Amino acid sequence: MAKQVLVTGASGFVGSHLTEALEAQGYSVLAMTRHPDTHSGAGKPIFGDVYEPASLSQALADADAAYYLVHSLSRPDFVEKDAEAALAFGRAAAEAGLERLIYLGGLGQDDANLSAHLKSRREVEHLLASGGAAVTTLRAAIVIGHGSISWEITRQLVAHLPAMVVPKWATTRTQPIALSDVIRYLIGVLEPEEAKGRTFEIGGPDVLTYAEMMRRVARLHHHRALPMLAVPLLTPRLSSYWLALVTDVDTATARNLVDSMSNEVIVTDHAITKIIPGMPLSYDDAVIEAFRQRAAAQTRS
Predict the structure, then answer these.
(1) Distance CA 7, CA 29 (A)
(2) Fewest 10 Å CB contacts: which of 19, 123, 229, 256?
(3) In 223-282, where does DSSP find H-type helix?
(4) Total domains in the fold of the chain
(5) Strands 208-209, 173-174: pairing kind
(6) Would residue 115 count as lying in a domain?
(7) pTM over 0.85
(8) CB of 78 within 8 A of CB of 72?
């Protein structure tokens, strides 16, 4: 049994919820951060920086297992930086003798048409394992939860616009998953021997286009229809400027996400259900849960 678990990206969207859930289940959690003095979330803060390889051996010294939740999507050089970080962390994990390393990656078929973002996620999988550590990968599409960049784009577009001109990517199919189910799967693969070193695809029960997701949010939360007009000639660059204008997502992140939105990301392998049974939340229930999370966060602040 993994007694002490290190979480990278512990202050991030998924990491902050994961550290809380791990502690609730009795694990001793090390929250790796570049700023341990200001860490206010769950877990014992410990210094570590994936871009400073020398810091990783000490951060991992007392860990039995680790979660890798790092990415640099807002940087123009994110492909190179993510590769550099994954290579360093994978080597350090192997040298520390970790029982297992768990990575949350991205869905999508392995072919030449994958976006730079999704290709980078695949590269990170391989680089984490290149040092010899046993890497368990969970591949997910859009995660629905308060604080998720992809979810915030959907929520803010629907909230700000009474009608919408949408680009071609709005007709791409995807398989969103609730944050609570992502956390359930991440913890669920920590102990079972049959999960060690394997890759799993995770998703909710609904396969939807981006347009369908926005229409559902409009109906569920705003109790209105959302008229849409598809414009096939709206380029990825123009789409990213549009998203940055209408939402609070920066242009670089928006551009990288828009590129990925042209890739259909659907679960084709359901092997995870043999290890972690249970029906994941529907898209509608995930949306309701995300709005509850947002309301709770606003109350706390």
Answers:
(1) 7
(2) 229
(3) 236-246, 251-260, 272-275
(4) 1
(5) antiparallel
(6) yes
(7) yes
(8) yes
